[in-house]
Every structure is written in C-alpha cells, then in structure tokens.
What does this fold into?
Amino acid sequence: MQITKNAVVTFHYALSNEDGQLLDTSHGHEPFAYLHGTGMIVPGLEEELEGRQVGDKFKAVVPPAKGYGDFNMQLLQQVPLDKFGEQTVETGMQFQAGQHGIFTVKEVKDGKVLLDGNHPLAGVTLKFDVEITNVREATPEELSHGHVHGEDGHHH
Ligand code: ZN
It folds into this structure.
C-alpha cells in the first residue's frame, strides 16, 4: 500500500546537516515507526513520505521552516548566574524550564548566563536519507490512541 493518512510507516534514516555531518541515524537500532498524517515527524519529511511505499529509498532536503523552525532570537535570554544558586552552570548544559521546554546554556560570562530556548536543530537544513521498511494500516486501537504500538502489543 501507499503511504497515506493513518498508515503506520516504518523506516530507517540517516539525518545530516548541510555540511554532511551526521546528526542522527536509526541504523544499528530498530527502524523508526510513526503514524502518518499526525504531525509526529517534521512536516517536510512527512510530505516527502506521502504516496511512497515499502522498499522506496530516497533523499529529502528539508528547510528549517519545514523542519524544527527558524532560529528565533527572541528565545535567547540572559539571566543572572546567582538565580541558579549552588548549581554548577556550564556551556552546553540543557535543562527543562517549566512549560517553556528545554533551554541550552550558550555562555556563562560576568555573572550572567545566556540561555537559548530554540530547538537544537532550529535554523538547520535537514538532509534525510530514508529507506521505507514497512507500511501497513493502523489498527483501530492505534488510531484511537494516536500512536503506533509495537508488534508484540502495548507498551505504555
Ligand atoms: Zn497506545
């Protein structure tokens, strides 16, 4: 069958940035499975998968606007280091801040911490190398839950 809304699609992928640096891959792990048409994967890749079928191999270049979004300067903010109390704060650290998602420490300087609330892949052009390994219809249970269940049943 072709990939259409509510198909369960399983695929292997390698994800690189524009410079060809590997960012993530499913090779060496189980292939990735998702419910098509539900926004579980970045929109640009979901569009590329539409209408394809098992065995298809393709490359897709996804611009930031259809990936993890453009880099938003407004999500950069500076906070006083003493707000962190006794906690050690270092460049590259990530932490959850309430409903605002994940923040990454970009810089610690002069008693101030520069925080970045952008997704780590915001502003990055995504290059996918995809191989579709399975396409099937979702079960009624999967459709009512809005996600994919494993071959041996329910794990959550
Ligand atoms: Zn479920």
Notes: The chain has two domains: 7-68+121-145, 73-116. Residues 42 and 67 are 5 Å apart (CA to CA). The radius of gyration is 19 Å. The pocket of zinc ion is lined by residues 145, 147, 149, 154, 156 (CB under 6 Å).
